[in-house]
Amino acid sequence: MPRPIHLILDFDGTLSHFSTLPLIYRIGYSLNPASPPWRTISEAYARDYQTHASAYAPPATDRTTINAELTWLQSLRDVEEKSTERVEAARVFRGVGAGDVRKGAELSVRRGEVLPRKGWARVVEKVMRWHGKVGIVSVGWSGEFIRGCLRAAVAQSQIAMSTVDVGAVDVRANEIVGGETGELNRYFEEEGRDGQGGIWTASDKRKAMQDMIGSLEPERRLVVYVGDSTTDFECFLAADVGICVKDEDEATGEQKGLEQMLKTIGIRSRWIGDMGPDDMAARPGESDWPGTKTLWWTRDFNEICDSPLLSETVNIRNNDIYSIAGRAVRPASLKPATLQLL
Question: How far apart are the first and last CA of the chain?
């Protein structure tokens, strides 16, 4: 058996095909119809983003290094924080409780508005059966909504709960506080966590991922991260294996943005089905060996499940796998000054 995998997933656009923010907003709006509609919130965010992007230097076409892209992604923090404060000021989540969120999640799955990507339950079951762990890291507003969607998807597809243990999936996301103010929490300001603000940026997602895997010894696990957008970029770099989702026929704006960014930087991506024996070769004692960072891509989770990465026939000597066709960059060592393409 290969050494245990710690599979970490983005939610919107990755495990679920589409963004769930308007669905979560709808939960609050149904209880607080005097609040601004979703369109007002989303258009204000788009204006802020465009204003920031237009004024930022260097422009996207000139950000040709990892360091330059990391700096740009971190610069979006103010835009994201302002958006969160705008939602709070709208008081749309005033009086919203966990039960309301769970009901909204169930309704969204039943209506087909939250559409899990093919093979998600299969890959979760397989990783857990191999004594691995599964986690979700999201910039979304509600971890409770994510957990509710997973439970509803399992129930709707008539998958045995004993086969896919949704309760064992570690979800790291922001949360609706509700109450009289309709606030959203700040993930990093919760007790026992180091930092400020919520999970808003690529750097925040990487830090949340590090929280999730920090207690695991590197030699005892293989970290695989699956995402679909530029917000997942730092997690791709920090994981042993990074896999991006591509809908070839109808790529989302997030997928196109990630693809263009990778092209500008010069990071190639290869289909997960082309992963071969050389890519799975063990390199004992060479966790920092130089090489070209490869990002894998997949259409769905069935392709990941059927790849050598999760093949039950792969024999890894000493259970040692380092980065797949690339340099193993651990979360603790993810510093802009040390990242480079060779």
Answer: 33
